[in-house]
């Protein structure tokens, strides 16, 4: 095996180890995060929500609001677009929702939606969370839009980038 290939495999294994330690239902000692959620959705899987702390938005999941684990984070840019994305797959416990997009909504937006059916999307205090069922979703397969209260499109994009 070439050294560069071995380094990539080792880095991927380290990332997988860190991610699996954070996923509910995967072995490891959890370190629960106790912060108020700005916005959340409740599914058969539990609670998924977003909290704000020290210039970042954190995506948190757990069986209840008392047992939340941080999954990923994105820079907090109130009033500007800031998107985070998480998808899981492979050998994980069965779930209803495997992919999540979250972040700061642009000014004037009241709802986030995607071409993939999902749950959530309401903008609360400028922040949103939206869950989708597909596993191993490629970020470029995400086509989304923000709308205002009247349903007019405020901003749309693909992946984590605004624009057509």
SSE layout and pairings?
Elements (H helix, E strand, L loop, with lengths): L2 H20 L16 E5 L2 E8 L2 E7 L6 E7 L6 E6 L11 E6 L6 E4 L3 E3 L6 E6 L10 E5 L5 E6 L2 E2 L2
Antiparallel strand pairs: 1-2, 2-3, 3-4, 5-6, 6-9, 7-10, 8-9, 10-11, 11-12
What's a quick, concise take on this entry?
With 164 residues, the protein is mainly beta. It has one helix at 3-22; strands spanning 39-43, 46-53, 56-62, 69-75, 82-87, 99-104, 111-114, 118-120, 127-132, 143-147, 153-158, 161-162. The longest helix is centred in the first third of the chain and has 20 residues, at 3-22.
Task: Please explain how this structure is put together.
This protein has 164 residues and is mainly β. The chain starts with a helix and ends with a strand. It has 1 helix and 12 strands, in the order αββββββββββββ. Strand 10 and strand 11 (153-158) form a beta hairpin. The chain has one helix spanning 3-22, and strands spanning 39-43, 46-53, 56-62, 69-75, 82-87, 99-104, 111-114, 118-120, 127-132, 143-147, 153-158, 161-162. The protein has one domain (32-162). The chain has a 4-stranded antiparallel sheet, with no helix packed on it. Strands 5-6-9-8 form a 4-stranded antiparallel sheet, with no helix packed on it.
